[in-house]
Specification:
The complex is a heterodimer of chains A (156) and B (427). By secondary structure, chain A is α+β, with helices and mostly antiparallel strands. Chain A folds into two domains: 6-65, Arc Repressor Mutant, subunit A (Orthogonal Bundle); 77-154, Glutaredoxin (3-Layer(aba) Sandwich). Chain A has six helices and four strands, in the order ααααβαβββα. The longest helix of chain A has 17 residues, at 85-101. The radius of gyration of chain A is 18 Å and the shape is elongated. In chain A, 41% of the residues are buried. Chain B has 427 residues and is of the alpha/beta class. Chain B has three domains: 3-238, NADH-ubiquinone oxidoreductase 51kDa subunit (Rossmann fold, 3-Layer(aba) Sandwich); 247-330, Ubiquitin-like (UB roll), CATH 3.10.20; 335-423, Up-down Bundle (de novo design (two linked rop proteins)). Chain B has helices spanning 17-20, 28-33, 38-43, 48-57, 70-75, 100-107, 109-123, 137-152, 183-190, 219-223, 225-231, 233-239, 270-277, 311-316, 335-349, 355-372, 379-391, 399-413, 415-423; strands at 86-91, 127-132, 168-173, 214-218, 247-254, 260-265, 287-291, 325-330. In chain B, the strands form two sheets. Chain B has a four-stranded parallel sheet with strand order 3-2-1-4, sandwiched between helices. Chain B is globular. The two termini of chain B are 39 Å apart. In chain B, 54% of the residues are buried. Classes of the chains: A alpha+beta (156), B alpha/beta (427). The interface between A and B is large, with 44 and 57 residues. The complex binds flavin mononucleotide (FMN), iron/sulfur cluster and FE2/S2 (inorganic) cluster (FES).
Chain lengths: 156, 427
């Protein structure tokens, strides 16, 4: 049974035409799979290994190297809190403590209805608006616990 | 991105700031209305060797961190037009404290694209990649939209401006790994592998992407090229100091009143950047420390900030200009906490390829946490310093040196604070 079908299959073909060496297409393809299916499953890896002519182990090695690639499902909204120096010392610490104590979200786990997942990340290039948070593709700066709570309530 | 105003308007001798402030300049039409793509048209009428001389005259030094002169690097690329070559723009922007390239990419994407096309013309390159960190998806989309506009205008593709020149740009997204910013790791990543830095030599100019000669420059470096072509290399050089041409996008963050991005001449005094431009220390507290060029650049004490922000002066002071990312700490910021965060970062981001770096960061992390948790006495501070300096010079890429320098320096310069922290066990 084919696993990567429909738009995913189309997107993969399109990406492959962009690169002269098909292996170079691995990160963009893995991201498309993750975008469409929520994470990169064993079935996807199996099929991708045929498409790219790589061993499954080689693909897994790549996946495990990059923190944005996931082999298990995430929440619909992935909340990333910067833990690097500027954010941490300028209000980020309070954000992390707030989420751990008062909200039902724990680092790495889901909210009750599985919509939110949380991780702490290194600098996301928004230090001038520290503390910064990334939710899916969007950045939010000058955060504080109340603002974050409002934002999360609007998503959940 | 939330808007942070770009302040101060001595715009005459600036490259980026005047453009940042123009509404809609991310669109082709507005960009062209403000002189966009004139440098490209000018360049295509001139001899490649003369254009290369302009870049050399500009004293443009790489804005990614190391400050290598761009003109000299370009000169290492083989001239033979039959040899396939690549251009890679390093848009990984992962060095903690750094946020400057995002302003160029999100606000003036066409300036980067124009710079890339001119570069490709001078060096004789058909394919260019922008390797952008995965978290910057929204900026990647802005770049792709601008590339589509440039294709429609036939600034990209075949027969650009009626010349035989062919050039295409692909935006390639990373997937979350700091080490991808190191140029050879970036190449490995672009080849679809784990981002393990390569031993140098060979340098990318000889053997880079797919083993072919490859020119890698930072976003800010390449985006400086149109101004050099428009106004001349000597003009650009005159903006900065003798060996550091041009302006620099200084990103300042932390405990200052007005954090943000400031375009200032190379060689601007660090004290002025903090007190004059960024408004001084927040809540008028006491300044404690400054990291001048991203987290990998060794920390400066308040006594050391009367310094010219250029590559050579900071090197002489035992630090680095790096990515121009200035991080400011005040009396409330604990240097023990700063070191703890720093080592978490390094231990997490070491690619694990060389033992001194992999074990060194692990051991340092254990030692630093034992300090953080007050489980040890001050003798360990010398051991941390020793372990840190033991990594320097023994690794494949400069990441290991950065760990050694940054960790060692923070302990050396703030030893008293570490002593006090450990003695005050009830704190
Ligand atoms: C660990 C490490 C991380 C780096 N990260 C970046 C980065 O995020 N962006 C960048 O432009 N250069 C980065 N560099 C520097 C690149 O290796 C390379 O020197 C640079 O892209 C060359 O361009 P330039 O000469 O225009 O500065 C990094 C270097 C090291 C050792
Ligand atoms: S110094 Fe560290 S990051 Fe660089 S190659 Fe060695 S292990 Fe990897
Ligand atoms: S330190 Fe948090 S975004 Fe840079």
């Amino acid at each position: 049974m084919k696993f990567l079908t429909g738009n995913t299959e189309k997107d993969i073909k399109k990406i492959l035409t962009q690169y002269e060496n098909s292996r170079s297409a691995i990160l963009p393809i893995l991201k498309v799979i993750q975008e469409d299916y929520g994470y990169i499953s064993d079935e996807a890896i199996e099929e991708l290994s045929e498409i790219l002519g790589l061993k499954q182990g080689e693909i897994k090695e790549v996946i495990s190297f990059y923190t944005m690639l996931k082999t298990s499902p995430e929440g619909k909204y992935h909340i990333q809190i910067c833990r690097n120096v500027v954010c941490y010392l300028n209000g980020g610490k309070q954000l992390i403590e707030f989420l751990e104590k008062e909200y039902s979200v724990k680092v790495g786990s889901f909210s009750k209805n599985k919509k939110l997942s949380l991780s702490l990340v290194e600098c996301i290039g928004q230090c001038e608006i520290a503390p910064a948070v990334q939710i899916n593709d969007d950045f939010y700066g000058n955060m504080n616990p109340e603002k974050l709570k409002k934002l999360l309530t609007s998503l959940d | 991105m939330e808007k942070k105003e770009i302040r101060n308007s001595e715009t005459e001798n600036k490259i980026f700031e005047p453009l940042f402030n123009i509404k809609g300049i991310e669109n082709m039409e507005v960009y062209e209305k403000h002189g966009g793509y004139l440098a490209l048209k000018k360049a295509f009428k001139e001899k490649k060797s003369e254009l290369l001389s302009e870049v050399k005259n500009a004293n443009l030094r790489g804005r990614g961190g190391a400050g290598f002169p761009a003109g000299i690097k370009w000169g290492f690329m083989p001239e033979d037009p039959n040899i396939e070559k690549y251009l890679i723009v390093n848009a990984d922007e992962g060095e903690p404290g750094t946020f400057k390239d995002k302003y160029i990419m999100s606000k003036i994407p066409h300036l980067l694209i124009e710079g890339m096309i001119i570069t490709s013309y001078i060096v004789g390159i058909k394919t260019g990649y922008i390797y952008i960190r995965g978290e910057y998806e929204n900026y990647a989309r802005i770049l792709e939209k601008a590339i589509e506009e440039a294709k429609k205008k036939r600034y990209l593709g075949k027969n650009i401006l009626g010349k035989k020149h062919v050039f295409n740009i692909i935006v390639h997204r990373g997937a979350g790994a700091y080490i991808c910013g190191e140029e050879t790791a970036l190449i490995e990543s672009l080849e679809g592998k784990r981002a393990h830095p390569r031993l140098k030599p060979p340098f990318p100019a000889n053997s880079g992407l797919y083993g072919k000669p490859t020119l890698i420059n930072n976003v800010e470096t390449i985006a400086s090229i149109p101004s050099i072509i428009n106004k001349g290399g000597f003009w650009f050089a005159s903006l900065g100091t003798q060996k550091n041409g041009g302006t620099r996008l200084f990103g300042i963050s932390g405990k200052v009143k007005n954090p943000g991005i400031y375009e200032l001449p190379m060689g601007t005094n660090l004290k002025d950047i903090i007190y004059k431009y960024a408004g001084g220390i927040k809540d008028d507290k006491e300044l404690k420390a400054v990291i001048p060029g991203g987290i990998s650049s060794p920390v400066l004490t308040p006594e050391e900030i009367d310094i010219s922000m250029d590559f050579d002066s900071l090197m002489k002071a035992g630090s680095m200009l790096g990515s121009g990312a200035i991080m400011v700490f005040d009396e409330d910021d604990s240097m023990v906490e700063v070191l703890r965060i720093m080592i978490d970062f390094y231990a997490h981001e070491s690619c694990g390829q060389c033992a001194p770096c992999r074990y060194g960061t692990d051991v340092l992390k254990k030692m630093i946490y034992s300090v953080y948790n007050k489980e040890v006495n001050e003798e360990i501070l010398d051991m941390i310093e020793e372990t840190a300096s033991g990594i320097i010079g023994k690794t494949i890429c400069p990441f290991g040196d950065a760990v050694g320098m940054a960790v060692g320096t923070i302990i050396r310069k703030f030893k008293k604070e570490f002593f006090d922290y450990l003695r005050d066990k009830n704190d």
